[in-house]
Amino acid sequence: VLQKWVNREISNFDYLIQLNTMAGRTYNDLAQYPVFPWILRDYTSEELDLNNPAVFRDLSKPIGVCCFYKHFIFFFRYENFEDPLGIIDKFHYGTHYSNAAGVMHYLIRVEPFTTLHIQLQSGRFDCADRQFHSIPATWQALMDNPNDVKELIPEFFYFPEFLENQNGFNLGQLQMSKEVVNDVILPKWARSPEDFIYKHRKALESEYVSAHLHEWIDLIFGYKQRGPAAVEALNVFY
To answer: pLDDT of the chain along its 238 residues, tens only?
Structure first.
């Protein structure tokens, strides 16, 4: 599979799906759901220029430290962490880049994930401000919130329906703006959910991502998962 990918006989998307499968990740287990990277950082421009390296996220760093100031937060958290009982090892992140709640968060508008989300929240939808309602706002929250280190799921690259509230669920309204949460708000450069998926998939297969994807793979599936390499890469999870 690696050789096929290097020879460009399979796409970046196919390679990531194969890696997830070999790593034991599966659509049948929300706790081990396939994980895909955030690949862009430009969610505000009117047009998306895939020839400009500045629109892409730095794939060599965990998503938690893609924003420079957070680098220091996690570095010092690790250096100063000490469990009085000596049971818990040092870590940079107390949450994970992929978990069941995160999958339900992204797929809240699509069954069976809607029902699973409601069950998780004791029989009701979570408060609107904590729901997945905007792609630009989700990226901004990643930049601002040290406790948010979620990567993406494969649906961001092929499944426009998860961005639409086709079932008409009452997801509440945002506290500050009183805006009703309905379809997911898209980046300005996307004209529709289908257009977002088309351009996002195109970005995944772009020359820049093809040249740097292995750096992210090292963090998630490779030698930077644990040990000294993980510490150096600020990639140690609780």
So the answer is: 999 999 999 999 999 999 999 999 999 999 999 999 999 999 999 999 999 999 999 999 999 998 878 888 899 999 999 888 889 999 999 999 999 999 999 999 999 999 999 999 999 999 999 999 999 999 999 999 888 999 999 999 999 999 999 999 999 999 888 889 999 999 999 999 999 999 999 999 999 999 999 999 999 999 999 999 999 999 999 9
Checking 219-226 for CB contacts under 8 A at 24+ apart, the result is 219/62, 220/35, 220/37, 220/97, 220/151, 221/19, 221/23
Give the list of residues 6+ apart from residue 2 with CB closer than 8 angstroms, or none.
none
Report the chain's terminal Cα–Cα distance, integer Å: 31
Helical ranges in the chain per DSSP H: 2-6, 12-22, 68-80, 100-106, 113-120, 135-144, 193-204, 207-220, 228-232
What CATH number should be reported for the domain whose range is 54-233? 1.10.1540.10
* Residue 202, both tokens: 């195109």
Cβ within 8 Å of residue 43, ≥6 positions away: 135, 136, 139, 187, 188
How far is Cα 168 from Cα 132, in angstroms, rounded to an integer?
Answer: 15
Domain spans, the chain: 54-233
CB of 55 within 8 A of CB of 41?
A: yes
Please give the distance of CA 143 from its chain centroid, rounded to a whole number: 12
